[in-house]
Write a structure and sequence with these properties.
By secondary structure, this protein is mainly α. The chain is about 65% helix and about 0% strand. It is flat, with a radius of gyration of 28 Å.
Length: about 130
C-alpha cells in the first residue's frame, strides 16, 4: 500500500500546484487588465465600423465574398496559377436559401475528392517502385 499512498500524494500535490499556478495567472491577468485599461473613446481594434460608426453587419459579408472572388479571378488571369481564367466560373447562391452551410459542405466535398486523387497518385508511385 505504500506505493498507492505515494502516488496519491503526488497526485494531490501536483493538482494543487497546477491549480495554484492557474489562480495566480488569472489574478495577474486581471491586474494587467486594470492597469492597462484605457477609456479614450477609441473603438476596439477587433471591430470594424463604417463611416456612420455602425458595426459592419451581414450585408457587408456579401461584399467581402465578392471582393475575395474578384481578387482570386484577377490572380488567376494574371498567370499566378497554372489554370487559365477562361475556364473559371463563379456561382454564388445566397446563404439564406440554402439549407445549412453550403460553402462548408462544398469545401468538404472538394477536400475529399482531392484526398482520393492524392491516394491514387501515391498508390501509383508505390507500384512503380516495385
Amino acid at each position: 500500500m505504500n506505493g498507492i499512498e505515494f502516488a496519491l500524494q503526488v497526485l494531490v500535490i501536483g493538482f494543487l500546484v497546477v491549480m495554484t499556478t492557474l489562480v495566480l495567472l488569472y489574478f495577474l491577468l486581471q491586474l494587467f487588465g486594470i492597469i492597462f485599461h484605457r477609456e479614450d473613446g477609441r473603438p476596439h481594434p477587433g471591430k470594424t465600423s463604417t463611416a456612420k460608426g455602425i458595426v459592419a453587419g451581414p450585408a457587408d459579408d456579401k461584399k467581402i465574398k465578392a471582393a475575395i472572388m474578384g481578387a482570386i479571378y484577377q490572380y488567376m488571369e494574371a498567370g499566378g496559377s497554372p489554370g487559365s481564367g477562361a475556364n473559371l466560373s463563379f456561382t454564388v447562391t445566397p446563404d439564406e436559401f440554402m439549407p445549412g452551410n453550403s460553402w462548408k459542405l462544398q469545401g468538404r466535398k472538394n477536400l475529399l475528392n482531392r484526398r482520393v486523387e492524392l491516394e491514387t497518385i501515391r498508390r501509383k508511385k508505390q507500384r512503380e517502385n516495385f
